UniProtKB/TrEMBL annotation:
This is Dienelactone hydrolase domain-containing protein. Residues 1-19 form the signal peptide. Residues 49-271 form the Dienelactone hydrolase domain. The keyword rRNA processing does not apply. The lineage of its organism: Eukaryota, Viridiplantae, Chlorophyta, core chlorophytes, Trebouxiophyceae. Keywords: Signal. The keyword Signal applies.
Length: 310
């Protein structure tokens, strides 16, 4: 998330040890119904620990949304998204990318985050292996419908879900991905394979200084060359990290690269919700314009309003 005021705090802090509390996200679901647990898994020698959430208001396997964290790793932010998705009837699974050996969240000094992230960004094989490990793991969970999996990611994790898509066909069960304020758009590794059936979406800020016009064109060309289903959502008056509500609201200063934008956050979240209904085939296609969005009854597979949340 890389808040600018965090950088300031870092240099002003007289403390030898860095301490930054995790943000207290609102509980927008019935806490009595959200069951959460950690899930241990591995990628080679790396020991990983994901976060799983689902609603016990209904029973049985359900579609899964995997969430790949931004550059401070797993924090309350990703758990908030997983719990929201759980309240809609999906299983939410926050993937671990950095491993259990890293104490993750806002307590990682901003100055340390690049060092954690760059080994993945500089080696697409390494990165793909790590993101595929979460997909492989969720398919083993009893709560999962193994062939109804979608992946989203934020910032570093948004770049990560594009790498996950590029790992196709080594991505069984995956229906599509969505990267929010993703970085980077382009890869140094092999591009998206032609014939990929995956849906690939980007949700980007039009004023994000990290998203150059050239990289948008390159990404579009890559998607077109693969002839798949893709979309690039470009939100106006919006900079990097626009979905992360613990960020200060962006004030329009072009020199400030990060900031929250509630309208773009909400619009992109609702876009995702529609994309999930389509990918998981939870819309009544003979009634696509009027069937209820949002929650659904996965037992009949029809969108309704059985489990509504914010
Ligand atoms: C941050 O990085 C520095 C230098 O690389 C290291 O000494 C320090 O232990 C790291 N701090 C944390 C909290 O990881
Ligand atoms: C990149 O990652 C792969 C898979 O982990 C590894 O085999 C390879 O040695 C790495 N390449 C470099 C240059 O570090
Ligand atoms: C691209 O996809 C469309 C729709 O699925 C298909 O009709 C068309 O044959 C594909 N083109 C190529 C070159 O694969
Ligand atoms: C933004 O940065 C430019 C170039 O560094 C500088 O000239 C300008 O004064 C800055 N604007 C604001 C509002 O800080
Ligand atoms: C789907 O929508 C059509 C048209 O409104 C309706 O006739 C049909 O009953 C719906 N199917 C289900 C399973 O709800
Ligand atoms: C979900 O089930 C209800 C009853 O059906 C229990 O009362 C809750 O304790 C349970 N919630 C969790 C988080 O396990």
């Amino acid at each position: 998330m890389g808040r600018l005021y965090l950088v300031t705090l870092l240099f002003l802090s007289p403390l030898a040890s860095w301490a930054q509390n995790d943000y207290d996200y609102p509980t927008l679901w019935d806490p009595n119904t959200i069951v959460s647990s950690s899930v241990d898994y591995a990628d080679g020698d790396a020991k990983l620990k994901g976060y799983l959430a689902y609603s016990n208001a209904t029973s049985g396997p359900r579609p899964v949304v995997i969430i790949y964290p931004d550059w401070d790793g797993i924090s309350n932010y990703e758990r908030f998204r997983a719990n929201l998705l759980a309240s809609m009837g999906y299983a939410g699974f926050v993937a671990d990318v950095y491993s259990q050996s890293v104490q993750q969240g806002p307590s990682i000094p901003v100055a340390n985050r690049s060092a954690l992230m760059m080994p993945f960004r500089s080696n697409s094989s390494y990165w793909r292996s790590r993101v595929v490990a979460a997909l492989t793991t969720v398919r083993t969970l009893d709560i999962a419908q193994k062939d109804k999996i979608f992946a989203i990611g934020y910032c570093f994790g948004g770049g990560g879900v594009f790498e996950l898509a590029r790992a196709w066909p080594n991505t069984p069960g995956l229906l599509g991905v969505g990267g929010f304020h993703p970085g980077p758009l382009v890869t140094a590794g092999p591009k998206l394979q032609p014939g990929s059936p995956l849906r690939v979406y980007a949700f980007s800020g039009a004023d994000d200084p990290g998203i150059t016009g050239d990289s948008v064109v390159a990404w579009k060309n890559e998607m077109e060359a693969a002839n798949g289903t893709w979309g690039f959502y470009n939100y106006g008056h919006t900079v990097h990290a626009f979905t992360i509500m613990e960020n200060p609201v962006w004030n329009g200063d072009k020199n400030v690269s990060n900031g929250y934008n509630a309208a773009s956050d909400h619009a992109s979240w609702w876009a995702l919700r529609g994309i999930l209904l389509e990918a998981f085939q939870l819309t009544n296609t003979s009634n696509a314009y009027t069937s209820a969005g949002g929650a659904y009854d996965y037992q009949t597979g029809i969108a309704g309003a059985k489990l509504m949340s914010a």
